[in-house]
Amino acid sequence: xxxxxxxxxxxxxxxxxxxxxxxxxxxxxxxxxxxxxxxxxxxxxxxxxxxxxxxxxxxxxxxxxxxxxxxxxxxxxxxxxxxxxxxxxxxxxxxxxxxxxxxxxxxxxxxxxxxxxxxxxxxxxxxxxxxxxxxxxxxxxxxxxxxxxxxxxxxxxxxxxxxxxxxxxxxxxxxxxxxxxxxxxxxxxxxxxxxxxxxxxxxxxxxxxxxxxxxxxxxxxxxxxxxxxxxxxxxxxxxxxxxxxxxxxxxxxxxxxxxxxxxxxxxxxxxxxxxxxxxxxxxxxxxxxxxxxxxxxxxxxxxxxxxxxxxxxxxxxxxxxxxxxxxxxxxxxxxxxxxxxxxxxxxxxxxxxxxxxxxxxxxxxxxxxxxxxxxxxxxxxxxxxxxxxxxxxxxxxxxxxxxxxxxxxxxxxxxxxxxxxxxxxxxxxxxxxxxxxxxxxxxxxxxxxxxxxxxxxxxxxxxxxxxxxxxxxxxxxxxxxxxxxxxxxxxxxxxxxxxxxxxxxxxxxxxxxxxxxxxxxxxxxxxxxxxxxxxxxxxxxxxxxxxxxxxxxxxxxxxxxxxxxxxxxxxxxxxxxxxxxxxxxxxxxxxxxxxxxxxxxxxxxxxxxxxxxxxxxxxxxxxxxxxx
Length: 628
Hints:
The chain has 17 helices and nine strands. By secondary structure, it is of the alpha+beta class. The strands form three sheets. A five-stranded mixed β-sheet has the order 4-6-7-9-8. A two-stranded antiparallel sheet has the order 1-2.
């Protein structure tokens, strides 16, 4: 408002009342800078860490610096009796204005207040002011408050020397009010630090200080004004005035002390009640802590019991798995032992008579040829024909010709049958490999063929399906070092599993597919061989594909399967031979089991070694997730 009064030359805005000193333009500008920058600093948004933007600090520091500069230059002008041209830089003034020694120049005490407040504002605006620095800030604020308060008392007590010397420009009344309010605003803005932190604390000292400050500040001011006006109006002499001042001050101070003591007693009583309540809470907390400790110990014991139970359960699971594996090995061993004894007995019992028959067939053929030659010679000598009487039956020439022809075919049939029996016996012995339990090199094709001969009866036509066709796509395989008997058993389990699947799915009356098993062998790098056994049955569902190699897992009815075939095959190929057994299946298209074996025997598995799949026709190609 004062700045507006100077710009528009309105005396009512420059002075509070007519006849009083006016506020100079530089004073109004400095007050506006300090008040505006402090308001901006208080209202500006802060970061989560309490930091202010650089612009806010820049405004505070700039306003403080400009105010300090104006006040300092004014003091220098009074001190050295010079003019720097700052008094009427914007607004023109003259010495005829009341209380003005130099045109437009602020009062000396006003300049001192601006220097003190400028320093305080500048320190307050620093980004990292130590806590002790706030004592310095509040010290400068105290200087400004004291000088401005003297100005107010000068006007209140009508003491001109309090608000200005006769030879200098005097401080205006509203200047003193504005500077005092700025000083108080600085104290409130720094209420959490320095001396103000003690005044605003919730402790007894802070409460007492706030209570006494009101009486300590207001009482002397009011009593001094009353006594001074009593002297001036001759209401009492100086002795009475001093006595009145002392007595009234003592009464008010005693009342203030009593009031403060009452407040402090209440605070102390509240503190004691709080301490007693805290003590009871502490005792209750101690009881609950003991109870919590007991519960904690109980929980720890329960956790230990549970951990032991879990460890026991894990141990039981491990023992159960070990027992299952042992049972599976015993079943496998017993199965192989029984198979070996069976094959050995069958081979021994059948092989002797078969060898006897097969060995005499050659002599029978020789003797038959000789007898037929004698008969032919007798017939040639008896040109008119001959008849032979055999008991009551007479054999003529035509019947004799038939007997001669049929007898030769009979001998040939006996030779073929004996040869087939010997082949089956040989396949049984080769499959079981009773005399080949060691690690040795074998021809895998021979083992596959022997397995197909043994399973030949299951491949033939039955009431529920047509004959199963076996397609052999044999590649050029090297000899493979392995356990022949165990490997033959694994291959037989896989082929038997394919036959079971074909009987289950192809046996449907509505299914017109031709049951087929495709056996493919290859060796791309001569270090690994691959055997694929593929069927065109219904495939394996995804829900059980991950469990097909688990021991005792089977989807067959009770009595039709033990769930050990694929598990035994998996262990034979993986553990015994260091190979891989991979299953690929697609619903309604079939399943493919792929056996990968190292040619030289057990080798460390290398996940980078892969064997390209055997190219099949699109309707035979089975895609699916592999498990190894």
